Amino acid sequence: MTPAADGRDFCSEGYGMETGQAFRTAFWLLFGLLLLMRVYFLLRVRQAGARLLPDQAAIEREGRVAFAARFAAFFVLIAILVLYTINHPWMATLSIPLPPRLRWAGFALGLLSLAFWAWTQAALGTHWSAQLQLREGHHLVTTGPYARVRHPLYTGMIGWAVGVALVTANWVFVVFSALSLVGLAVRVPREEQMMLDEFGDEYRAYMGRTGRFVPKSRDTPWTPS
Fold it and tell me: CA 195: distance to chain centroid?
């Protein structure tokens, strides 16, 4: 009987004591920390009196299809979490026989990505929005992780998603993470166009010295504040 068939996780030689429960705990820790972080920064934005829900302009800017897909993805994620929580046999059939060391490396990547994500949110402060809309009095943030990367928040998201896919070792999370990357590929150019429309040459110059998700070069001093 294979590990996928009986619902147990693959264990290579020397790791016989590793159990699926340990990795499930690691997953829920990553997910729980993400929720806490998101709620904290949402409350900060709310307390500042900023809008959380998108206005009509934000929906049009993102595109109705893309917005609807993002909205539907939330409910798909809820369904996946329910299936994972009850350890449904269907989820077990889609497990991937990854070695424990790789899965723990994914957990470490998830934690580091969360820390980077939180740093990014702190740098944005109340300018942050989950929608393609700018705040009143919005200024271009170029400090902290934004000194060398235009979309460090998405870098943190990608790292966290890859970490979760490795920790769970399940094709469902791999596919969900891949589809999330497709969503970002659609969203980012529209977000950058919004910033160009608002900040013009200032943002164009900023694009010239930064990379989208990773630093472009080291010729610009980095101010980690």
Answer: 21
